[in-house]
Amino acid sequence: MKNLSRRSFFKTTSLSMAGALVIPNLLRCSPNNRLNIAVIGVGGRGQASWTQVPRESIVAMCDVDDRQSARGFKACPNAKRYKDFRVMFDEMGRDIDAVIIATPDHTHFAAAMAAMELGKHVFVEKPLCHNIWQSRTLKKAAKYYRVVSQMGNQGHTTNGIRLVKEWYDAGILGQVREVYAWQPSLNCGGPNGFVPSTTFPPEAQEVPKELDWNLWQGQATERPYNKVYVPGDWRGFYYYGNGKLGDWCCHTLDAPFWALDLGTPVAAEAERWNPVPDHTFVSEESVVTWNFGARGDKAPVTMKWYEGFGKPEVRPEWGINELPVEGMIMIGDKKTIITGMRPNNARLLVPKDEWTEFMKNPPEKTIPRIGEEKPVQEWIAAIKNHTLPGSNFDYSASLVEMAQVGILAQRFGGKIEYDAKNMKATGRPELDEYIKEPARKGWSYGEKL
Description:
Blueprint: H1 6-17, E1 36-40, H2 45-50, E2 57-62, H3 66-75, E3 80-82, H4 85-92, E4 98-101, H5 108-117, E5 121-125, H6 132-144, E6 149-152, H7 159-169, E7 176-183, H8 213-217, H9 243-252, H10 254-259, E8 267-273, E9 285-292, E10 301-307, E11 327-332, E12 336-339, E13 346-348, H11 352-360, H12 375-385, H13 393-412, E14 414-419, E15 424-426, H14 432-435
Parallel strand pairs: 1-2, 1-4, 2-3, 4-5, 5-6, 7-10
Antiparallel strand pairs: 7-11, 8-9, 8-14, 9-10, 11-12, 12-13, 14-15
Helix pairs in contact: 5-6, 6-13, 9-13
């Protein structure tokens, strides 16, 4: 991989940025052309990713928690073991081609930047990063360092999301002006079941001997350890995660964002119930509304996210009595399309006989298929074929930035008029420190880009 053609990379990059995304052919990969892969975040989602590359060489594994990494270390006995990815890159930088990053949200950025600065291809678990400035910087870095990037939102590789885009592009839906998504379950954390009304903020506890708490915190502001954070409930605390919206936007809002070419919102607003006064923990119930301007001949769009309760009202023309417990709909002036929380399944909201007739003669499939939920394999193939995968940072960072504008509204309430050019919430300077969060000493990356 040291001989990767930079000229070939830029050719495919130029094509993809112009809108003609190059999708790799997975069958072209030679099993003898092995990549040397490092893994940062060995358990959980990390394990779900590195176990998908049996034809490659796992040469290094890095994890701050011996409890979470034990199975991975046992499965890959020849991989060198680390707790600090900075040390790993210092010692093994020349021996690594690509890096899989599956740590908590707040440490994605530093790990990805450290890898890209060394010219390593990066796969980063969703959501891509923790704030708007990080999203912009990762997008710039992937181009600057000429690496193959991918965010791990599995749904972007599915047949379902391709159907959504193909049907919209074929004019089946007509103009879409409304998008709704609803998720009744908060469940933004993990198995520890933290209830903020009991002890808030979480009290200081003794750090387990298996965990390096300092490294786990990464670039985030230092806080006392509490077992609620590790391994699962960190996502419910805004200083480490971005809640349910940050987690699931990469699945549920991916299809409308891609199909409608939504880009950056001009505004976001949130209604909240039971908000936490100091804005550090995810509210229990909320509705977030984004507004997008016209894009060429595409109409302006209003998109709503219901979290913890509620869903849109059923309309007579849909031919159904009730919407499912969770999902997403794009309402066009001709037809309406529905998916689940992931875009795996897609169908038109029409009477059963009309749906049957539609499926007998559906629109042409114009987007290459690459296999269901295979973002890691797509990334590996793109590296070897000198192309870009579908959720490369130029695309996925924009998707995540859109969600992060909504997350700011969800966290602090009220309306945000978003100045995308300057990354500012117009008239709300108090949000600047959350658009670009400070990094602890020794964890600053990307400042020169």
